[in-house]
Amino acid sequence: MLILRRKKNESILINDDIRITVVECAADGVRIAIDAPKQVSILREELSKAETENKQSLAPGYNAVASLQNSLLGSIRGKNADSRKQAEE
What count of Cα atoms within 13 Å lies in the side-chain half-sphere of residue 67? Predict the structure, then answer.
């Protein structure tokens, strides 16, 4: 990790296309401006973590998928058995 000290209106360059500028320094925090290409995703860390947690909670776990698959296969087998019984009658 690189730690730098910057004052108001001073910038940091990352590669040739990303500029981070200190806009305001206050007791409750620092305001920064980020100038980057549109294809570069910029998210506050807490929002990125929340987004990851939401995606994980929406993704079904292996056990849920396996359970659904077994239920569907059982349902199909049951219908096939019922069809055979009706054909025999």
Answer: 5
